[in-house]
Amino acid sequence: MIRPAYLLLLCAASAVAADTLEISVLDVEGGKSVLLVSPSGQSLLIDAGWPAIGGRPSSTARILEAVKAAGLTRIDFLVISHYDVDHIGDVPELVSNIPVGRIFDHGDFDSSNPQARQRYESYAAVRDKIGHTVLQPGDKLPIQGVDVEVLSAAGRLTSRSGPPNPLCAVYPQAGAIPSDVEDNQSIGLLITFGRFRMLDLADLEAHHSHDLVCPVNRIGAVDVYNVNVHGQFKGIAPELVGAVRSSVIIQANGARKGADAQTWPVLHSAPGLRDIWQLHFSLNAAKNQNPPYDFVANLEPPDAYKWLQISVSTSGDFHVVNTRNGFTVRYRAGSQP
Q1: Is residue 1 assigned to a domain?
Q2: Burial class (CB in 10 A: 0-12, 13-18, 19+), 74
Q3: What is 4-34 written as a DSSP string?
Q4: Model pLDDT for residues 162-186, shown as the tens digit of each residue
Q5: Does residue 191 fall inside a structural domain?
Q6: Domain assignment of residue 287, yes or no
Q7: DSSP 8-state class, residue 249
Q8: Which candidate, 190, 187, 223, places its Cα nearest to that of 312?
Q9: Hey, is 120 helix, strand or coil?
């Protein structure tokens, strides 16, 4: 573990290195937004956090801060994993502030909620003007220098093969939650750069993610697992957590959303785990059900909207940086069996 000077951290984060993959897991208050910058300099934003709603500002300013820190003048590709309010964000506001090259999503949206429908229609008008692709399992995103594969979309899952998963006999499949239909439309992604692999299944819940690893493990081992549904327990499938054998787990939670107390023991007992990182100290759990403070980007109070930065080199090494204090841990990719 090392602690670089914070000034050096900011300088490093602001430059797009020619031989690294940079991943910023942004604090959008329990919503979702992840920024990737490939060694080619192309960028991919996964989800746009929140719109302005209920006294909460939109997440656009938080995203633009990270985009500026990365030295970008445009977002080449935007993926909206699904249309829940904390993922769809305010795309019209975003594209009015920075050019977006192309938008990807899971297709049409069917909702009887008038507010959700209005948000989608505002988004769709911008999406259709910019240019739009509906993703299917097995598709690859066209970002140069990084392999980004679609594992789930619109309730369908990849047909990849894999070895039998013995954990399927230990953990029964969780029941589906009928009220959460849109969660399970989520676009789930497997990001590969050399030997480094990162799993991000957005809000896919435990019932559906079970089928990605049972009866066979169609994902394989990964190095970083960005936990489903912000670490809410409804997204936690022990048979998946055990199967992916991630050395680094990230919970993109808010102070009072996600990183549930019931989630902690499942993640903490995962085989191969080295560290759990969180965007916020979770007030939904006790202190001993949170990581040490150095592994938490935002402590309460105050919230400074700090993010977690993952830098991946072509050598297979990667490191995670807490932008709140510069705390850094180095890892080696591909070390899991």
Answers
A1: no
A2: exposed
A3: --HHHHHHHHHS--TTEEEEEE---TTS--E
A4: 999 999 999 999 999 988 999 999 9
A5: yes
A6: yes
A7: E
A8: 223
A9: helix
Following DSSP, what letter does each residue of 36-51 receive, concatenated? EE-TTS-EEEE---PP
For 121, other C-beta atoms within 10 Å of its C-beta total 10
Percent of the chain with pLDDT over 70: 94
Cα separation, 268 vs 231, whole angstroms: 12
Task: Round to whole Å and give the CA distance between 153 and 216.
Answer: 19
| Residue 211 neighbours by CB under 8 Å, 6+ apart | 157, 173
Choose among 263, 261, 265: nearest CA to 286.
261
pLDDT of residue 173: 97
Block residue for tokens 């896919």? 204
Two tokens, residue 17: 């290195």
- Total tally of structural domains belonging to the chain: 1
Q: What is the mean pLDDT of residues 282-297?
A: 97
pLDDT digits (tens, 9 = 90+) for 294-331: 999 999 777 889 999 999 998 889 999 999 999 999 99
244-261 in b/e burial notation, b at 16+ Cβ within 10 A? bbbbbbbbbbbbebbbbe
Is 335 within the bounds of a domain? no
Q: Strand order of the sheet with strand 308-313?
A: 132-134, 100-105, 75-79, 43-46, 34-37, 20-25, 308-313, 317-322, 328-332
Mean pLDDT of the chain: 93
Containing domain of residue 167, as a range?
A: 6-329
Q: What is the CATH number of the domain that holds 250?
A: 3.60.15.10
Alpha helices, DSSP H only, in the chain?
6-14, 60-69, 85-88, 91-97, 114-130, 206-213, 238-244, 263-268
Partners of 37 in the beta sheet? 22, 43
CA distance 104 to 257: 26
